[in-house]
Amino acid sequence: MQTTFRARTLIAALGLAGAAFIGTAAQAQIKIAMVIPTTGALTQYGDMVKEGATTAVEMTNAAGGINGKKIELVAVDDACEPKQGPVAANRVVNSKIGYVIGPVCSGASIAAAPIYNNEGVVVATPSATSPALTDGKNFHFIFRTIGRDDQQGPSAAKFIIEHAKPKKVAVLHDKQSYGQGIATAVRDDLKKAKVEVALFEGINAGDSDYSAVITKLKSAGVDFVYFGGYHPEMGLLLRQAAEQGLKVKMMGPEGVGNPEVNAIAGPAVEGMLVTLPADFSANEKNAAISKAFKDAKRNPSGAFQMTSFAAAQAIIAGIKAAGDNPAKVADWLHANTVDTVLGPVSWNKQGDLKSFDFQVFQWHKDGSKTPAVK
Question: What span is annotated as the signal peptide, if there is one (predicted)?
């Protein structure tokens, strides 16, 4: 039997370790947690999610809040680490918060999801793409506002097959839930299309020297490299490959689509390919929202700002319709379509979006990106 929160005004636990409060505490009557990395190597992704959620909440509060109640965001750090995921989840539960935007990373999300679900906390993750988060779990309270790796992987593979047309491909990953999952999806689709995958290998996240794997890439004679993982490792692979004279096109998922990759890779980042959510900030229907981001000196066109905004929209819509009761909000989300910056979104029984638009972009050394297919 699942334990759920009864409808109530949510009151912040004083002295909550690892949490920061955003908003006007005296006015806030509904609390939503942002479970994001505020420490560690992946804080930039937390910043993206924070920008999206904060903009959505500011706009909602300015329009009167949820049924007259103001919203307060509570930032809880999980460092994007699986071992910290349950710790962060327990902080949310102990502070009696019934709604979460996040977690950001798949590994931390997978580790924390049973706690959120068992305790009746509605979770809308804007960035965790691993199918393992939801497959076979029968979770009622876990939702995504981003597609899965088995939607993103085929988008990458399709581009490789139809546009890059390499002779030999190497597929690398960081041995973690997200990176290995997306790399496996890409490898499998390439093999189905009879594209030779000469190397499928994991590297250790956090290492500073990938010369051994670059030597293997040179020996295998590959002309294209797909890497499943995050920007710190991708940046090093790009830089060290250039330093060692390996001239190949490299591609990664949305986890490498971070301006910080430029600082690591240097000029070698030019032309990196990356699958990202479509640039929803460019949609004319979102012009006012994009302006709100820019007026607050926030970037609406990053990987997760708009998916985070949509996560906030989903939770807010659920509370408006069903009341401040997480169990009823979860029921409502499963049964309804929500208008968001992503367009109308709805979920299947396990909380995954029924469809999502991933696109391929080319990354540039000034940190900008352009569509890889015109």
Answer: 1-28
Distance of CA 138 to the CA centre of its chain: 21
Q: What is the pLDDT of residues 236-290, one digit of tens each?
A: 999 999 999 999 999 999 999 888 999 999 999 999 999 999 999 999 999 999 9
Q: Quick one: average pLDDT of 54-83?
A: 97
Distance CA(254)–CA(237), nearest Å, equals 16
In a domain, 295, yes or no: yes
The string of pLDDT tens digits covering residues 333-349 is 999 999 999 999 999 99
What is the rounded CA–CA span in Å between residue 344 and residue 303? 19
Residue 55: CATH number of its domain? 3.40.50.2300
Max CA distance (Å), the chain: 65
Report if residue 12 sits inside a domain.
Answer: no
Phi, psi of 158 (to 5 degrees): -60, -40
Indicate the burial class of 212 (C-beta count within 10 angstroms; 0-12, 13-18, 19 or more).
Answer: exposed
How many domains does the chain contain in total?
Answer: 2
Say if 3 falls within a structural domain: no
Task: For the beta carbon of residue 298, count every other beta carbon within 10 angstroms.
Answer: 18
Q: In this structure, are 43 and 112 located in the same domain?
A: yes
Supply the pLDDT for residue 5. Answer: 37
What is the per-residue burial (b if ≥16 Cβ within 10 Å, else e) of 23-62?
Answer: beeeebbbbbbbbbbbeebbbbbbbbbbbbbbbbbbbbbe
DSSP letter string, 205-219: TT-S--HHHHHHHHH
Residues 201 and 250 in one domain: yes
Q: List Cα–Cα distances, 212 to 59, 79, 121, 229, in angstroms.
A: 50, 29, 45, 18
Residues 42 and 133 reside in one and the same domain = yes
Based on the domain organization, do 199 and 131 belong to the same domain? Answer: no
